[in-house]
Amino acid sequence: MTEQTAAELTEEIRARLLAQPELILADRDLMRALIGAREAEVGENVIDIRGRAMQALESRLDRLEAAHESVISAAYDNQSGMNTIHRAVLSLLEPTDFEEFLENLDVAVAPILRVETLRLVMESGGEIPAPEASGPLVIAPSGTVARLISGGRRMPRGDDIVLRRLARETLPFHGEARAPIRSEALLPIDLGPGRFPALLLMGSADLGRFNPAQGTDLLRFFGQAFRLVLISWLRK
User: Fold this and answer.
1) C-alpha span between 232 and 236 (Å, rounded)
2) What does each of the 236 residues of the chain score in pLDDT, given as a tens digit?
3) Residues of 67-106 as b/e, b for ≥16 C-beta within 10 angstroms?
4) Closest Cα to residue 163, out of 119, 204, 122?
5) Taking a C-beta distance cutoff of 8 angstroms, is the pair 31, 54 a contact?
6) How would you classify residue 186: left for phi > 0, otherwise alpha for psi between -120 and 50, otherwise beta?
7) 187 and 226 in contact (C-beta within 8 Å)?
8) Which residue in 229, 217, 222 sits closest to 202, CA to CA?
9) How far apart are CA 141 and CA 121, in angstroms?
10) Residue 64 C-alpha from the chain's centroid
11) What DSSP assignment string belongs to 115-144?
């Protein structure tokens, strides 16, 4: 410590620092300045082991804080996602008839899930009605669900949820959308023995909204809830 610095350090400040050294230890910028001053004093040919150790500890602390923030962010996103799915499931239970159930998909459930399109594709072995331009229900020939899921690629397992960029095969099924569809989620719906398969198709204008690297637990839960509600309507 130089004579000038010693002169500027009053007895009151000195006593306070001696009584509360954590005031310096908790201040990273101040500790970094002290270490730098010490290394400048001892010269380039002398290695200050304590300074190097403190730098290593500081670097480790930075990494731990970054990991901690990442865990908190992931937990928050997961909690937010759970709340969204729960709200969507509750909305599925509100309609009192099948027509209202279908209308509710577009009016309420899609906005809750923050998607531009939400389509229910159901296969039929009979005559196929003319599709509606923007209706939530699309009746399609047998084999359509498998074709849409494969999207021109190798067929995944039948119960797999598919997250990907918009495929050419599914584009017509999204119909009129609030915005151009760039990514999509496909949830296969098994309606039980003796019934044709169905598919819940979601479309998003956000390219990164649905991609294969994402987890599907929440969407799987929503798909299972949707399946039970849909089967209950088909039995009536």
Assistant:
1) 7
2) 444 444 567 888 778 877 877 777 677 677 767 666 665 555 555 455 566 666 677 777 777 777 777 666 656 666 788 899 999 999 999 999 999 999 999 999 999 999 999 999 999 876 665 555 567 999 999 999 999 998 766 655 555 899 999 999 999 999 888 789 999 999 999 998 989 999 999 999 999 999 998 889 999 999 999 999 999 999 87
3) eeeeeeeeeeeeeeeeeebeebbebbeebeeeeebbebbb
4) 204
5) yes
6) beta
7) yes
8) 222
9) 10
10) 23
11) -SEEEEEEEESSPPPPPPSS-SEEEEETTH
Single-letter amino acid code for the residue at 62? D
224 phi-psi bin (left φ>0, alpha ψ -120 to 50, beta other) = alpha
Could you tell me the pTM of the whole model?
Answer: 0.67
Helix, strand, coil fractions of the chain, as percent rounded to 5: 50, 15, 35
Alpha-carbon torsion 23, 28, 32, 35, what sign?
positive
Q: Exposed, middle or buried, 182 (CB in 10 Å: 0-12/13-18/19+)?
A: middle
